[in-house]
Amino acid sequence: MAWFLLVLAGLFEVGWAVGLKYTEGFTRPWPTVLTAASMIVSLVLLGLALRSIPLGTGYAIWTGIGTIGTVIFGIVYFAEPATAVRLFCVLLILSGIVGLKLVSTT
Q1: What compartments host this protein (predicted)?
Q2: C-alpha to C-alpha distances, 39 to 27, 52, 54, 65, nearest whole angstrom
Q3: Counting Cβ atoms within 10 Å, is residue 101 exposed (0-12), middle (13-18) or buried (19+)?
Q4: What pLDDT does 18 receive?
Q5: Do the Cβ atoms of 41 and 62 come closer than 8 Å?
């Protein structure tokens, strides 16, 4: 269950990272409220997951999911560049996430 919560927390991290773009400097009320709510949900889920997942592993995977998800979202929806080097770096992050999960004792 902790791993499911961690993945869900990472997905909500993507939500608040993307939401920051839509707040336009926190000047738009609804995007700001949704972004803040996503931040809170993400942190609560991360905290719950860290009850049984080691801190370093959990935090690294949480930020990795957020990073990969935000990069993919930016490529798909904001026409950000999808260069080979950029995608290779995302693959390195993904391999780190998988590696941490594989060596985790929980």
Answers
A1: Cell membrane
A2: 17, 21, 21, 14
A3: middle
A4: 96
A5: no
Read off the pLDDT of each residue in 78-95 and give the average, rounded to a whole number: 96
Residues 72-89 have a mean pLDDT of 96
Quote the distance between the C-alpha of residue 102 and its chain's center: 19
Cα–Cα distance between 39 and 71 in angstroms, integer?
18
User: Using CA atoms, how far apart are residues 72 and 66, in angstroms rounded to an integer?
Assistant: 10
High-pLDDT (> 90) share of the chain, %: 94
CA distances from 35 to 13, 29, 50, 67, 103 (A): 9, 10, 22, 16, 33
Q: Is 76 exposed, middle or buried (0-12, 13-18, 19+ CB in 10 A)?
A: exposed
Q: Could you tell me which residues come within 8 angstroms of residue 27 by beta carbon, excluding any fewer than 6 positions away?
A: none
Helices (DSSP H) in 1-106: which residue ranges?
A: 2-23, 29-49, 55-77, 84-103
